[in-house]
Structure formats: C-alpha cells, structure tokens
Amino acid sequence: MTGAEFIASLLADGSLLGLRAGDGPDAAERAVPVGFLDVEEAPGVSLRRDHGLLELSFSGGGDGTAGWTLSSGMLQLHRLPEDPELAAEWREATGVDFAPYTAWSDVLAALAAGPGLQESAFERIDQGGYLEYRNPATRVSVLVVDDPDEERDDWPGNGDVWSVSLG
User: Fold this and answer.
1) Is the pTM of this model over 0.85?
2) How far apart are CA 122 and CA 136, in angstroms?
C-alpha cells in the first residue's frame, strides 16, 4: 500500500492499522509493530509514545498502562525527507510504503479510487501557510503545505502533506 492510499484509508475510516481513539497502549503496541520511546509528560496524566514517524498521545494513566487511553496520534510525514530510515522501518513493519513526499493530490486520487470521498467532504481550514483538511466523521485531519514559495528539499513543498492527525 502506498502512503497516499494509507492516508486515504485513515481519512475515510479513522483507523490507524486498526487502532482508534480510546484504545490502550497494549493495543497500540500490537497495532504498530515499530520500536518506540514512552515519555510520561505529566505523571499519571499524559503519556506520549514516539515511534519516529508516528507519535501517539494517551491520557488518564494512573498506575501502569491499564488506565491510559489513546487521545490522539500524528503521522509526522515532514520527517521523511531527512530520514529515509523512518520510511524503511515503517514499510518493513506495516507494508505501507511512504515516499519522501506525499502530494495531497495523490491522497485525493486514492480517496476517489477507494472510499469514494471527494475533497468537498472535508472541512478546509486555513492555518496560515498550511491548509487543514478535516473529516469530521472520523476526526482525522491532514495538514498540507500551502505556500507557493515552498519547494521540496529537507521538508515537504507546496501541495505536499506535512502531517496527519487522528483525534
């Protein structure tokens, strides 16, 4: 599966490799078979799990992992141009093949070919240099670079996906 197809699937159904908001860290570990670092940012209140390409945030921990629930997640696609090993690790673990850059137009094409969603189905929010496309039904947002002067280099360029947020 390409990165654009994966993003389209996430936008359409709100599931990241079977993982959804409200799931616990154990479910996340099974769903995302990539190494991670846990950072408890506020003891017993918030936990951030960094998988490199993916960051997951949990809340309501208390004792151990039993009380933590997934509140949000973010695919940090802007990290790919400078670190191709992230894409290789993700591809090996999940079968999803992310290119260094993913054009929003490729995601739209994958949406049209698969789930049948059109760009008009999304809320469009100008974030100043970025456009956020949010599917209110799944609570998934895609942040797209919106600056004609931005070219692809160490970062995504104009029209490329910067990140994808769940929750």
Assistant:
1) yes
2) 7
